[in-house]
Every structure is written in structure tokens, then in C-alpha cells.
Design a protein that fits this description.
Keywords: Membrane, Signal, Transmembrane, Transmembrane helix
Number of helices: 3
Helix content: 10-25%
Strand order of the largest sheet: 3-2-1-4-5
Strand content: 25-35%
Protein name: Tissue inhibitor of metalloproteinase
Largest sheet: 5 strands, antiparallel
Oligomer: single chain
CATH topology of one domain: OB fold (Dihydrolipoamide Acetyltransferase, E2P)
Order of helices and strands: HHEEEEEH
InterPro entries: TIMP-like_OB-fold
Organism: Actinoplanes missouriensis (strain ATCC 14538 / DSM 43046 / CBS 188.64 / JCM 3121 / NBRC 102363 / NCIMB 12654 / NRRL B-3342 / UNCC 431)
Number of strands: 5
Length: 171
């Protein structure tokens, strides 16, 4: 009897979760990033990434400057943690980067373009055609949330089936 009440309570509390909840991540961006908000925007190849003190210092070989002024190389900082909106840059890859006051983040609107060419071309060469933007973390968080929501829905469906199939007996 008590198990039945607990099951009904769980179904009432947990049941609506997969349908009402949205994915929640620690990094929350207030508005769009991109070229409109950037002081500096450029396409470039990551030459090095150094971590320390909760920050990453990323050195780029600048290819094309889209906004602002930059030399042949630019060093920017970002948090080393995606939960703190840090953007993960990989050495040797080409990015379109939007920066403000020497920093960039997940909220800046950065895009991965393509792997850098094998040869070390001068910084003034034009970029190759861009590939589709990728999630910098390499994971699809929506898929993880969908699987979790599906498991909860499966549990709720099983509970309802058990309640209907085995109704409470009358004394």
C-alpha cells in the first residue's frame, strides 16, 4: 500500500519533467555575440594554447582581419572551463574569432572553420572555404538531455502500466 502511494507520488512529480524541462548549462550567454559586439574579429590558426590560473592563453596566427586592428599574431585569453563560458581552442585548427578587450568566450560567437594547411603559409593568405561550425566541447548535449528525458518517460510509462494492470484490490 505504501509502495503504491510512493509510486503514484513519483509519477506525479517526475512525470512532467521530460516535457516541461529544458536543458540547463552553467554557461548562460545574455544575447548574441559576433562581429557587432566584438572589438576585434579575425580568421586565424591556433599556434599555441597555454593553461594556468583558470585561464587559457591562446596565440593565433592571424589570416584575415574582419574588424579592428591586429598584427600577424594575436594572443587572447578565455576561461579554461566551459561551465565558465570558456571556449576550447585546438592547436592547428582555423577559427573565426570575436574578441572584446583581449578575451573571447563561448558567448562571443566563435566558429571553427577548418584544419590549418600542412604548410606554414604567410599570415596574409586567404582562408579556405569554411566548414560547418562545430560544438567546441565535441559533445552533443541535446542528445544527452534527450536520452535522459526518454529514460524518465520510460519509467513513468512503466509505472502507469503497473498501476493499470494491477489495480488496488478492494477489501
Amino acid at each position: 500500500m505504501i509502495m503504491r502511494r510512493i509510486l503514484v507520488l513519483l509519477l506525479l512529480v517526475i512525470g512532467p519533467v521530460p516535457f516541461a524541462a529544458e536543458a540547463a548549462w552553467a554557461c548562460s550567454c545574455g544575447g548574441d555575440g559576433g562581429i557587432a559586439k566584438a572589438q576585434l574579429a579575425f580568421d586565424g590558426v591556433v599556434r599555441s594554447v597555454e593553461s594556468g590560473d583558470g585561464l587559457q592563453r591562446v596565440r593565433f596566427a592571424v589570416g584575415t582581419v574582419l574588424k579592428g586592428e591586429a598584427g600577424a599574431e594575436v594572443t587572447l585569453t578565455t576561461s579554461d572551463n566551459e561551465a565558465s563560458c570558456g571556449y576550447r581552442f585546438d592547436e592547428g585548427k582555423r577559427y573565426r574569432v570575436y574578441a572584446f578587450s583581449g578575451t573571447t568566450s563561448l558567448c562571443s560567437g566563435n566558429e571553427i572553420l577548418a584544419a590549418a594547411p600542412a604548410t606554414t603559409a604567410p599570415a596574409t593568405t586567404a582562408l579556405a572555404t569554411t566548414a560547418a561550425a562545430e560544438d567546441p566541447s565535441g559533445t552533443d548535449r541535446t542528445l544527452v538531455f534527450g536520452i535522459g528525458a526518454g529514460l524518465v518517460a520510460l519509467f513513468v510509462g512503466f509505472g502507469v502500466t503497473m498501476l493499470v494492470r494491477y489495480p488496488r484490490g478492494r477489501d
